[in-house]
Amino acid sequence: xxxLASNSPRRRELLAHIxxxxxxxxxxxxxxxxxxxxxxxAVEQLSLRKALPLNxxxxxxxxxxxxxxxDGIILGKPADEAEARxxxxxxxxxxxxxxxxxxxxxGKRHLTFxxxxxxxxxxxxAMAACWCRKFRAIxxxxxxxx
Length: 146
Fold this sequence. Notes:
The chain is an alpha/beta fold. It is 29% helix and 27% strand. The chain has four helices and six strands. The chain has helices spanning 9-16, 39-51, 81-91, 129-139; strands at residues 2-5, 22-24, 60-70, 73-74, 97-106, 109-117. The termini are far apart. The model is unreliable at 138-146 (pLDDT under 50).
């Protein structure tokens, strides 16, 4: 039996393509990061923080985390709809990176890795306000432009 340390419906869906032999247990961990940490290191650290509390030694625990970064700077969660619109406008037409870290933990063993995806620039500025609300709700992406 595998334990998925995430409440993400998308992660649950992806794991279900591989196996049905898993349970879902989200963890509430401190997601603060040191200033200036590289995005790949951040998601690796956070994925491990999420997996470790559920490690019982017998089962494999999978933890994961995803961040969006622009010019190597990690973007945070928008505080509200207005900030989400501002963030999308900031990303409009720019390259950005999506980093995902994954940790597999069982007993004293663990494997942690990350990958980077660079989606093509999109013009977000043209989106209507209602689409920004839907986009924010559907994707659960956390973007900030500071």
